[in-house]
Request: fold
Amino acid sequence: MIFLEDEVIKLNGVILPGVVKSIEVKESAQIDEQEVEGSAVKPKQAVGYEDAKINIELILDDTESATKYERLATLRALFRTSGQSVPQPISIVCENTAVHGIDKVLFKSLTHKLENKKGQLPVTIELWEYVPQTIQTTRSSGSSTSTKPSSSTSNISNTSSSFTLSASYQRYLSTNRGSSPATDSAKPPKPTGQMKPIQLK
Reply:
């Protein structure tokens, strides 16, 4: 079995430890099959593409600088750091993924299996291509209804501006109509006389 000893793969800026046994990159299209009553042939409709899947097999051995489990801990830190609750997209640097135009991935799974007879630690990494989604926002129905009162108000103002007063009412407004008794300059009326108490029988 030939291992790719000179293969260099970086995840989030960290070189993957161990010997690369194999790399598999799979791209596939999304195709729906429609069932037609009375026909054995199912028409197929292409609807898009699925995110690419990357599978990497590694062989971890003990080295002078670290044990195979310490090297596995390096992979575990890439998969999930302490306190991390949601996987985050990470960068990948690899010739095999660059050919497919993949530079961001999600760390989907990490699997290891101990082989007692060799003392090696086979590890399988599954990565999914990360494609950022663009979300377009639209106005809600509430915002459109809020504009209706403003339009009705403008219609009212336009109507009032076109309204003209009659000539007789304009003459009434221009004449001296006196002062209001509620103003500060108004004097209180003088008493006409003293009121006599009324005796009830």
Observations:
- Confidence is low (pLDDT under 50) at residues 1-6, 144-161.
- The longest strand covers residues 104-112.
- The CA atoms of residues 9 and 94 lie 5 Å apart.
